[in-house]
Amino acid sequence: MIQLQQLTFQYGARSIVDRLDYTFAGNAIYGIIGPNGAGKSTLLQLIAGVRKPSSGQVLLEQRPIGELPRRQLAQRIAVLQQGGLPTLGFTVKEVVAMGRFPYQNWLGSERADATALIDEAIEATGLTHLANRTLEQLSGGERQRAALAKVFVQQPDILLLDEPTTYLDIGYQQMIMELVKQWQRKQQLLVIAVMHDLNIAALYCDQLLALRGGSIIAAGTAEQVLIPEHIASLYEVEALMVNHPQQNVPQLLLRLDLDKEN
Ligand SMILES: Nc1ncnc2c1ncn2[C@@H]1O[C@H](COP(=O)(O)OP(=O)(O)OP(=O)(O)O)[C@@H](O)[C@H]1O
């Protein structure tokens, strides 16, 4: 469980994250939505412990996140950054194995052999045939899957995803979200994902948190959050909501101003 208590982050006098109170309970996928510059990535960095709050706090099981030793934090929280992984000449297998760093001693070895876990993660992400290729020889979608395999082997109980499907075609978007969902359900993880695609967010997230100007303007299920009034207030667009015929969740269509076209 992650609790935000009056969480605030400022650049100079400007509050990027402004006195947030919110609880992320375990075993669910939370989506953070909101316009560009709303403070979504900053919030994720505060939860990851890579930024320090200006005031207020992030609690992990009642303890301020800044008090936890780095290594212990890395065993609990994994972060999938925007754009996947940098390409530095490492193979898929080498990069995935790096997910085990938090469990290794200073000689780079760990008590249990993690080879089977690494192979399993590579297989689950459909990368077995690419395991010995270097990252620069992969497509963007394959690289994103390698990044996901790396966080799988980190065996966290909290997974933070910063726009996990950006730059991916719809096939890869669905594959990444399906993998995350299957893994989340199997391991009962807490997943917190910054999402730009509201329709994907509605399909995969159990709860949504809508941010604008560093404040929460709505929180709840997709049905509660994705209503035209909120969409207008977040993005300044007029939305038409339709029901997904299979999943019974809202999906968004843009309303066109037909007068403007003539
Ligand atoms: N180093 C910095 N100094 C000053 N302001 C910054 C700095 N880094 C980010 N900001 C500002 O903080 C605000 C929030 O940025 P953040 O990246 O958290 O937004 P976001 O909601 O993730 O946006 P996006 O959807 O565009 O990724 C933005 O207005 C941004 O310009």
UniProtKB/TrEMBL annotation:
Any one Pfam family match given in the protein's UniProt record, by short name: ABC_tran
A single MF term (Gene Ontology): ATP hydrolysis activity
Keyword tags: ATP-binding, Nucleotide-binding, Translocase, Transport
Entry keyword annotation includes Hydrolase: no
Identification of the protein by name: ABC transporter ATP-binding protein
SUPFAM superfamilies, per the entry: P-loop containing nucleoside triphosphate hydrolases (SSF52540)
InterPro entries attached to this UniProt entry: AAA+_ATPase, ABC_transporter-like_ATP-bd, ABC_transporter-like_CS, P-loop_NTPase
Family matches, as PROSITE patterns: ABC_TRANSPORTER_1, ABC_TRANSPORTER_2
Keyword Transport appears in the UniProt entry: yes
Domain of life: Bacteria
Domain ABC transporter span(s) in chain numbering: 2-238
